Amino acid sequence: MSQNQTVVDGSTNESQDVAPSNFSDPGIPAHKHRLGDSDPKAARRSETIVVTLFVISMLGTIGLLVAFFALPDDTSVAGVRTQNITLGVALAFALLGIGLGAIHWAKSLMSDTEVAEDRHATESSQEVRAEAVAKIQAGVEDAGVERRGVLKGAMVGALALFPLGLAVPLIGEVGADWNISKFRHTIWRKGVRLATDPTNRPIKASDVTVGSAYHVIPYQDDIDESVRPGTHAWLDEKAKAIVLMVRMDPSEITEADDRKDWSHEGIVAYSKVCTHVGCPVALYERQTHHLLCPCHQSTFDMADGAKVVFGPAKRPLPQLPITVDDEGYLVAQSDFTEPVGPSFWERLK
User: Where are the residues of the annotated region Disordered (predicted)?
Assistant: First the structure.
């Protein structure tokens, strides 16, 4: 068989070089005009909508500034600061107003006529470039940008005001409290009872069974009144003081020599604040005694000093030294012996 023949279904056919077919340029489909292109009233309605959206953005930014300066930061709703809720809602309106306004402007008012331009050499000739500029100018004229002064003013106003919503809170924090020593301590003190979160019920050691896990906070009657629930300070202090307490078989626990008296009959308590970026670690696996952080999967071994066994965290969870009082309630022996949570400047370890 010669080289210029191929076998197809048992028969021989001479192979030929087939030239590619020439397809005609389908061109651009017929332009579908929008209602606003032919109806001035529809165009004005679209312009009004866009202006309204930009005004909403401006009002959102102004509302954010008012909330930042006027609302107290010590009131809360369902545990969330009222000021934070208001700032979030105002910022949402500021962003949505600009975004939706720009989208509606582009879809309803700006020219949507498709223009085809043949490209050959990388650098176009002066005539081609002049033609391109003319087409752009024609598009601008078709969109009526020059005629819509109110529209331009609303857009410029929204864009000019919006950065204040980000800059003012940042500038306002310049004079904030930068005392980092408060990160080194929590409201745990000697004799403060361990209580369930959020019911604030003191916990007796006899009620804690092997394998159980408790989300723990300081018993509110044992701490200073200035940081009790209902105060702004309570939210900050509770965030640092949250603890996960579990009870294991004492034979399964590995304890350093200087920490053998920090637990009570297999009951150990560790900070719930992840040492990676501060997320609450609360997913306890009873069989392995592993504690998982849901944010970035850092895993700590509760049976071995809460050491890191997986994930990006670099330090074990701080342990809260505990014991029992005369009534059998679990109490703290002291505060944590090291700062809780992730690293910060001037931290020694």
Answer: 1-41
Q: How far apart are CA 300 and CA 310, in angstroms?
A: 7
Average pLDDT score over the chain: 85
Q: Which residue has the higher pLDDT, 278 or 172?
A: 278
Residues 262-295: pLDDT tens digits? 999 999 999 999 999 999 998 999 999 999 999 9
Judge if 158 and 197 occupy the same domain.
Answer: no
For residue 316, how far is the Cα from the chain centroid? 25
Structure tokens of 309?
């066994």
Alpha-carbon distance of 235 to 222, in angstroms, equals 16
Q: What domain count does the chain have?
A: 2
pLDDT band at 261 (very low <50, low <70, confident <90, very high): very high
Q: Which residues contact 153 (CB under 8 A, 6 or more apart)?
A: none
Q: Which amino acid belongs to residue 68?
A: F
SS3 assignment for 217-263: EECHHHCCHHHCCCCHHHHHHHHHHCEEEEECCHHHCCCCHHHCCCC
Kindly state whether residues 170 and 189 are assigned to the same domain.
no
**Can you tell me the distance from the alpha carbon of 7 to that of 168, in angstroms, rounded to the nearest whole number?**
79
- Judge whether 317 lies within some domain: yes
Residue 201 shares a structural domain with residue 168: no
CA 94 remoteness from chain centre: 18
**Domain match, 160 and 204 both:** no
Q: Does 194 share its domain with 287?
A: yes
Side-chain half-sphere exposure of 69, counting CA atoms within 13 A = 9
Residue-range definition of the domain harbouring residue 229: 182-332
Q: Is 337 helix (H, G, I), strand (E, B) or coil?
A: coil
Which of 174, 206, 241 is a domain's end point?
174
Q: Please, how many CA atoms are within 13 Å of residue 22, restricted to the half-sphere of its CB?
A: 0
Nearest to 37 by CA among 140, 130, 144: 144
The letter for the amino acid at 163 is P
Return the higher-pLDDT residue of 2 and 189.
Answer: 189
Q: Do 257 and 143 sit in the same domain of this protein?
A: no
